[in-house]
Amino acid sequence: MADVARHAGVSSQTVSRVSNGDAAVVESTRRHVLAAMEELGYRPNSAARALKRGEFRTIGVILFTLSTTGNMRTLEAIANSAADEGYAVTLLPVAAPTQDDIRGAFTRLGELAVDAIIVIMEVHLLDTAKVSLPPHIQIVVADSDAGDRYSVVDTDQAGGARTAVRHLLELGHRSVWHLAGPAESFSAQRRADAWRATLEEAGREVPPVLHGDWSAESGYRAGLALAEEADCSAVFAANDQMALGLLRAFHEAGRRVPEDVSVVGFDDTPGSGSFFPPLTTVHQDFASVGRQCVEGVLRQIRNEEAERGTTLVPTRLVVRESTAAAAARRG
């Protein structure tokens, strides 16, 4: 700044006013200073300006895993939405969902200087009393049940599962088996609870639930077991990758999809329409989840009213060739 001042023949204070857009600077002086900045390659120190203003234009994101489709696509949407608003994103993965690790992540993000934090809680916390988020930090939580303590944005997990199960029942299947995600997963538990409740409300038998780990391989192993169940004519898988494993296992066991067994997934991943057969699945609007998370923290940053509780992003069923009427398997 001192170099620019000397080159332009003005004071350092005038250079500071020009870089901060002060309207009181005479236009001819402004142009002269800007020309000097351009000639010398001067750029204002954004870090110093951020410290002075107390605004860093950065949103921190804490999440427990980068391995799941939901987390990756939500993170992508957060980054895109933040960029549209002129904000950067600082990512901090956490090895385990423990109080110490979460506290350490918040401390680290505080050191890195962020304006607010989005927490993507993919793992269901069995005892929320042991994992409490600092109340003084502006926060939006995604994919979790934080009650009314924080602003939460989540896919309508239960609504999507109900739609999938009702679709299969309306096709004439007597019941629907379920391949759930990991027992500790919040979204997996929400989907499993809705599956069970929908069958009970319809007065149908509830088969034993199977668990996978979100991977196609775990779906394949579960599919080999389900292929031995003579009364299994319909399966709702908690995500598309496990559904992909199911399709392979049924094919190897000689169980035709959808003639012998119908399969529905969850996520509507980009490749699900190219499975064999193309997969009927529940579409999640990850872009909307990410956008609403960013909008939520920006409202808090701007001191606007921040709603507590959960905002649910609707899902929709995408019907393809992996489901058919139960009668078709007797044809």
TrEMBL record:
**GO molecular function term, any single one:** DNA binding
Among PROSITE patterns, the record links this protein to: HTH_LACI_2
Which intervals hold domain HTH lacI-type?
A: 1-53
Pfam families per record: LacI, Peripla_BP_3
Keyword Zinc appears in the UniProt entry: no
Instruction: Report the domain of life of the source organism.
Output: Bacteria
Keywords in UniProt for this one?
Answer: DNA-binding, Transcription, Transcription regulation
The protein's matches in CDD domains, at most eight in alphabetical order, are given as: HTH_LacI, PBP1_LacI
Protein name from the UniProt record:
LacI family DNA-binding transcriptional regulator
